[in-house]
Amino acid sequence: MTLVALAGGTGKLGRIIRSVIEAEPGYELSAVLTSASELTELDGADLVVDATNYEASERILAAALERGANVLVGTSGWSADRIERIRPAVERAGTGVVFVPNFSLGSVIGSAIAATASRFFDSAEIIEAHRDTKVDSPSGTAVRTAELIGAARETPVSAPNADQPARGTLVAGVPVHSLRRPGVIAQQQTIMSGPGESLTILHDTSDSASAYAPGIRVALAGAASASGVTVGLEHFLDLGLGA
Length: 243
Known about the structure:
single chain; Dihydrodipicolinate Reductase, domain 2; 11 strands; alpha/beta; six-stranded parallel beta sheet
């Protein structure tokens, strides 16, 4: 039985994660932390799941490493640079930390396909949309997609006039544009263009609870036995894309 401490269990994502843990055999909730909780509530957990915000996530991750627990991070704000800065602490602790920017299997597959396809196009840009209550931008999923695209290519993406604010935020050389509006849960378009053609990879989330649950189950199993730092749910999926 894997004992799980869930931080941020009363938030939107946290409630979905909690329902999956409670229904999944082999896992037992040892604690559900809120913003008023003491970090001592992490004591005894084999796996700490973090669904809070970046500021709280840093403290929770450090406290989990001190206790020798593995960690599953579903919190936005962990850029590649920030993850690299905590890698030595994870190695010293001898545990595993898994960062999952998006628990949707469709989103993860779409990002992996985009990274593979981008090698054949000069231009790649990302447009992501979330509900108007999402405070961070660009989204963690868009950042991860851009990083995968940057890593997959031998040459930088063509991004003319990228110094202009209206051209979006550059992530790994890829322009990312964020929309925040009511009536949408999560949507991402990766648009790649070359001479005479373009390819758009679109992922649209219509119901977060049912979309995220399968990926959460995959992530729980992966994080419980992980070693070192892992970024992205795709590492626990057999995508066979060669990216």
